[in-house]
Design brief:
- This protein is α/β, with parallel strands linked by helices and 233 residues long.
- The chain is elongated, with a radius of gyration of 20 Å.
- The protein folds into two domains: 3-76, no CATH class; 81-229, NAD(P)-binding Rossmann-like Domain (Rossmann fold), CATH 3.40.50.720.
- The longest helix has 18 residues, at 212-229.
- It has eight helices and eleven strands.
């Protein structure tokens, strides 16, 4: 990789900004392309920009053929992260499934008897209060935040922090009545209706899930739908 592009890629990685290096495999020309279509470096075929955006959306490096010759698209994306607030039963299968789907999982719960390594092996655990944990974690556009406790003292601060962030998916467990009261409390904190619409509540696709594992499936399915299709809240 060219030295100037390498420095820009390193800056993008540090800033958690997705980018793709496009290399023309015949000419050796290279350019750095971002999600907004902006490019830096050598001139590339027009098809390269569209191919680069598709590779970023798919989160996969790839080789593509164009009328102007083959291109290698090397994707540099920040890690996908899932923050679960509440080390409850549903959190256990959800953490495991999300890790298999490629997410770096964190579980936040100040109740130390819940947030244990025995219950969540291989998962980053935090016994901080959610507002403290969220300030440290700093959710971004590659982050999912899901609250599961039903306890406003834990869920509300996490949801407020998530709404102030660029998290691409925010979800909260609870019935429609519970969610309505939740929205009232968050609205009293100054969040607009458009902000509150970002919260998926009740969380998960309506597939008739009952057991903790089934509910975890419904949640991860909705997260995947939001990520891959940009489904509205």
């Amino acid at each position: 990789m060219r030295q100037d592009l390498l420095q820009r890629v390193l800056a993008d990685v540090a800033a958690k900004r997705p980018a793709v290096v496009v290399t023309h495999l015949t000419t050796g020309a290279q350019a750095l392309v971002h999600g907004d279509g902006g490019a830096q470096g050598d001139p590339l075929p027009a098809a390269a920009l569209a191919a680069a955006r598709e590779a970023l959306a798919a989160d996969q490096s790839r080789t593509v053929d164009t009328p102007e010759g083959p291109l290698f698209l090397h994707v540099f994306s920040p890690p996908l992260r899932l923050v679960i607030v509440g080390a409850v039963h549903i959190a256990q299968p959800l953490a495991h499934m999300a890790a298999l789907a490629g997410y770096a999982v964190s579980v936040v719960d100040p109740r130390r008897s819940f947030a244990t390594k025995d219950r969540f092996p291989g998962v980053a655990l935090s016994t901080e209060w959610p507002d403290e944990a969220m300030a440290r974690i700093a959710p971004d556009a590659r982050t999912v935040v899901i609250t599961l406790t039903h306890d406003p003292k834990l869920d509300d601060p996490a949801l407020a922090a998530a709404l102030r962030s660029g998290a691409f998916y925010i979800g909260a467990l609870g019935s429609r009545q519970t969610h309505a009261r939740r929205l009232e409390r968050l609205g009293a904190l100054g969040f607009a209706t458009t902000d509150l619409a970002r919260i998926h509540g009740p969380v998960g696709l309506d597939i008739g899930a009952v057991s903790p594992a089934e509910i975890a499936v419904s949640i991860l399915a909705q997260v995947t739908e939001r990520r891959r299709r940009g489904a509205p809240a």
